[in-house]
C-alpha cells in the first residue's frame, strides 16, 4: 500500500461512523482513546493500523488466534478447501464428519456434537436443550461469567458494586420474566450453590459456568466448587454446562474438564477451535444431543445456514491438527509463566500493589493487594484507573492490550521470548508513567457489560 495515497485511520474511521453505528461491529471494539484506529493487516504476533503503526498483540481478538494471526498452515487448508467444496446447505461434508470425530475424541464430555457459527449460539442451544430435556424453567449462572448475547444469560458480567447481588442486565430490551428465570450466584461459593439447589432444585434446568471466568480476567476455580456443581446437578437431574468457549483448546486439548477431571453434561466451544475463523460447537451426552431437530422428529429446533461451512471446518481441522502435532501448549505455557513472573517483579520494583495471575497463555494484572481473587466480589478492589491507564499507554511502546477494565491478555504460538522481554519492560514504563500522572480518572464508556437500565441510559 502506498502510504501517500492510502487514507489515514482518522479518515477511514470517520467513513465508518457514517455508515456503521459507532463505527464498529461489536460493542467491545469502540475504545476510548482509540476511536480512530483502523486495522490494516495482521501476521503472527502483530498487527498494523492504517497509519502504519505496528503493535505486538496480546489482546488477540479475545483469544481465538492461539497459533498467531494468519497462520500459514491454517490459511493453506482454507484455500485448499475452497478449490473442492462450497456451502451447499444440505446433507454433510467429509470435513464436518472428521471435525465431529476429532472433538468427540479430544473432549471428555462429548459423545455427539453440533457445529455453530459462534459461541453465543452454542450456549443458547445448550440452555434450550436443557429446558427441553428437563421441562424446567430456571438457569443458574455466576457473577462475572459471560455466555454470549442471548437474553437468558445477558446479565451480571462486569457489574458496578451496587449491582452485585441484584439482576444487572447488559442490555435493555430483555423481558423481565426472562431475567427472572436466571439465578445469579457467586463463583467459587459452594454454600450458595447448595442453598440454591435446596430452594429451587426441582425447577433448575441447567447450571452454566465458565470453569475459569476469563471474561473478568482470570478467576481460578476451586476443585471443590466444580465438583459441587457436578454433584448437585446429578442429584437434582439438572444439566451441567461448561462454557469452554475460551478455555477449550487454549488451555488443553481436552478443555478445562480434562484438567479438572470434572465432566459436564454439555460443553460449548469456540474461539481457539479454528484460530480466528468463525466457528462454535455444542457437544455432550448423546441422549441430550439427540433431542435436537437435526435428528428427525426431535423436539429442540436447531438450524443455521453457515453451520459447518467448509472453510471454517478446514480451519478447525488444520488448527487442531497443529495443536496435536506441535509443542504449542508447551510454548505458550512457558511464555505465559515468564510474562507473569516478569511483570510481577517489575511492579514489585515500582512498589505497586498488584496481583499478576492467569493460567497457561492467559495473563492479567489486577492493581490491588493479594491474595489472588476467587470471586467477582474480590475484583471490586481492582484499581480500574491504573488498569486502564497503563494499557492506554502501552501502544506508545508498540504493544496492544485491550484498555477495558478486567480484560485478559493472550500469548500465541507466534510470540517469542524477545516479545515477552519487551512486554515486561513496556509494562514497567507504562505503569511508571501512569503513576506519575495519577492514573486515569475519566472512565466513561470503558465497561460495556453491565448496568443497562430502561430508557437506553447506562450506569
UniProtKB/TrEMBL annotation:
The keyword Cytoplasm does not apply. This is glutamate-1-semialdehyde 2,1-aminomutase. NCBIfam families: PRK00062.1. Its EC number is 5.4.3.8. Keywords: Aminotransferase, Isomerase, Porphyrin biosynthesis, Pyridoxal phosphate, Transferase. Pfam families: Aminotran_3. It is an enzyme of class 5 (isomerase). GO terms for biological process: porphyrin-containing compound biosynthetic process. It comes from Micromonospora haikouensis. GO terms for molecular function: glutamate-1-semialdehyde 2,1-aminomutase activity; pyridoxal phosphate binding; transaminase activity. It comes from the Bacteria.
Amino acid at each position: 500500500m502506498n502510504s501517500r495515497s492510502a487514507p489515514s485511520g482518522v479518515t477511514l474511521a470517520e467513513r465508518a461512523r457514517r455508515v456503521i453505528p459507532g463505527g464498529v461491529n461489536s460493542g467491545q471494539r469502540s475504545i476510548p482513546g482509540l476511536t480512530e484506529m483502523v486495522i490494516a493487516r495482521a501476521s503472527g504476533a502483530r498487527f498494523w493500523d492504517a497509519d502504519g503503526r505496528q503493535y505486538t498483540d496480546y489482546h488477540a481478538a479475545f483469544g481465538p488466534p492461539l497459533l498467531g494471526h494468519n497462520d500459514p498452515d491454517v490459511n493453506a487448508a482454507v484455500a485448499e478447501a475452497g478449490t473442492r467444496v462450497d456451502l451447499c446447505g444440505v446433507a454433510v461434508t467429509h470435513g464436518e464428519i472428521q471435525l465431529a470425530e476429532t472433538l468427540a475424541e479430544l473432549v471428555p464430555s462429548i459423545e455427539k456434537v453440533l457445529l455453530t457459527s459462534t459461541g453465543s449460539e452454542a450456549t443458547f442451544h445448550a440452555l434450550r436443550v436443557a429446558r427441553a430435556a428437563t421441562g424446567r424453567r430456571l438457569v443458574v449462572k455466576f457473577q462475572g461469567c459471560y455466555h454470549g448475547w442471548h437474553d437468558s444469560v445477558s446479565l451480571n458480567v462486569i457489574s458496578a458494586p451496587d449491582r452485585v447481588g441484584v439482576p444487572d442486565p447488559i442490555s435493555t430490551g430483555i423481558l423481565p420474566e426472562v431475567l427472572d428465570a436466571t439465578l445469579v450466584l457467586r463463583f467459587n461459593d459452594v454454600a450458595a450453590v447448595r442453598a440454591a439447589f435446596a430452594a429451587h432444585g426441582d425447577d433448575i434446568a441447567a447450571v452454566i459456568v465458565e470453569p475459569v471466568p476469563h471474561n473478568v480476567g482470570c478467576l481460578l476455580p476451586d476443585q471443590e466448587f466444580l465438583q459441587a456443581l457436578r454433584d448437585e446437578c446429578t442429584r437434582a437431574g439438572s444439566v451441567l454446562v461448561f462454557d469452554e468457549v475460551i478455555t477449550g483448546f487454549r488451555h488443553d486439548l481436552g478443555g478445562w474438564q480434562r484438567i479438572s477431571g470434572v465432566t459436564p453434561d454439555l460443553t460449548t466451544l469456540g474461539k481457539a477451535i479454528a484460530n480466528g475463523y468463525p466457528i462454535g460447537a455444542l457437544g455432550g451426552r448423546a441422549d441430550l444431543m439427540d433431542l435436537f431437530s437435526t435428528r428427525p422428529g426431535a423436539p429442540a429446533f436447531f438450524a443455521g445456514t453457515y453451520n459447518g461451512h467448509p472453510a471454517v471446518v478446514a480451519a478447525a481441522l488444520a488448527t487442531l491438527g497443529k495443536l496435536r502435532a506441535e509443542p504449542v501448549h508447551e510454548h505458550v505455557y512457558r511464555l505465559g509463566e515468564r510474562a507473569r513472573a516478569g511483570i510481577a517483579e517489575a511492579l514489585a520494583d515500582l512498589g505497586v500493589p498488584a496481583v499478576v495471575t492467569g493460567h497457561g497463555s492467559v495473563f492479567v494484572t489486577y492493581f490491588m493487594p493479594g491474595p489472588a481473587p476467587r470471586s467477582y466480589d474480590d475484583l471490586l478492589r481492582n484499581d480500574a484507573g491504573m488498569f486502564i491507564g497503563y494499557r492506554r499507554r502501552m501502544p506508545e511502546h508498540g504493544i496492544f492490550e485491550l484498555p477495558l477494565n478486567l480484560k485478559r491478555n493472550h500469548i500465541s504460538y507466534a510470540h517469542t521470548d524477545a516479545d515477552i522481554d519487551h512486554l515486561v519492560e513496556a509494562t514497567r514504563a507504562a505503569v511508571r508513567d501512569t503513576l506519575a500522572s495519577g492514573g486515569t480518572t475519566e472512565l466513561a464508556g470503558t465497561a460495556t457489560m453491565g448496568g443497562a437500565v430502561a430508557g437506553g441510559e447506562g450506569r
